[in-house]
């Protein structure tokens, strides 16, 4: 699927431009590709943050009942495997 591309000029502070060039060299990408990736990641981050706020709001408005919490606590040991921290 081909989409239209637009060319535009932007101004960046020197430090941001250095970072852009560093990403470009490190990952062997064009400047456009680095900027596209940054936009995609910012978009995803904002979408995820909005979903988390919605989830938290729903949880505050409709917290689990005591029976749900008891069931969850009973099932946790059965579903989670112990981790070796050493």
Structural summary, described in words:
- There is one protein chain.
- With 86 residues, the chain is an all-alpha fold.
- It has one domain.
- Helices cover 69% and strands 0% of the residues.
- It is built from three helices and no strands.
- The radius of gyration is 23 Å and the shape is elongated.
Chart the SSEs and their pairings.
Blueprint: H1 14-27, H2 31-61, H3 66-79
Helix pairs in contact: 1-2
Low-confidence stretches: none
Q: SSE order in H/E notation? A: HHH
Outline: elongated
Whole-number tally of structural domains: 1
Overall pLDDT metric: 90
Q: Kindly provide the radius of gyration, computed on alpha-carbon positions and rounded to a whole number of angstroms.
A: 23 Å
| Percentage of residues in helical conformation | 55-70%
Distance between the first and last residues' Cα: 49 Å
Q: Give the beta-strand count.
A: 0
- Beta-strand percentage range: under 5%
Number of helices: 3
| Largest sheet geometry | none
Structural class: mainly alpha
Attribute tags:
mainly alpha; 86 residues; 69% helix
